[in-house]
């Protein structure tokens, strides 16, 4: 299984552009039906702009179930985990409505 290390992408986690870069790195895994690890090691907490342009767009494009099967998060701090959990839960409820 491949791993995408956010820090190695040379992006931050605060802008839409940062989120778009991550999304573009993830799309081939979704298209191939492969899982991928995403490492948040040494990364600051993410903004909603980052989420909107990465995870949100992927959930809208491929659906929540495919997102859960494809994206495996690793090296999360408690802060990362809480933000992602809250955002993905909200996004799943929003998309399902």
Derived from helix and strand composition plus strand pairing, the structural class reads: alpha/beta
Unreliable stretches (pLDDT < 50, length at least 5) are: none
The number of domains is: 1
| Helical amount | 55-70%
Distance between the termini: 33 Å
Describe this structure in words.
This protein is of the alpha/beta class. The protein has one domain (2-96). It has four helices and three strands. It has helices spanning 16-32, 48-62, 64-70, 78-96, and strands at residues 2-5, 36-39, 71-74. The protein has a three-stranded parallel beta sheet. Strand 1, helix 1 and strand 2 form a beta-alpha-beta unit. The radius of gyration is 12 Å and the shape is globular. The termini are far apart.
Q: Main traits of this protein?
A:
alpha/beta; 97 residues; 60% helix
List the helices and strands and how they pair.
Elements: E1 2-5, H1 16-32, E2 36-39, H2 48-62, H3 64-70, E3 71-74, H4 78-96
Parallel strand pairs: 1-2, 2-3
């Amino acid at each position: 299984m491949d791993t995408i290390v956010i820090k190695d992408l040379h992006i931050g986690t605060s802008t839409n552009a940062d989120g778009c870069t991550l999304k573009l790195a993830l799309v081939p895994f979704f298209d191939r039906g492969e899982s991928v690890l995403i490492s948040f090691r040494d990364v600051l907490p993410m903004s909603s702009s980052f989420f909107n342009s990465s995870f949100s767009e992927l959930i809208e494009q491929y659906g929540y179930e495919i997102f859960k099967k494809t994206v495996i998060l690793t090296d999360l701090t408690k802060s990362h985990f809480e933000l992602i959990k809250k955002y993905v839960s909200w996004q799943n409820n929003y998309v399902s409505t």
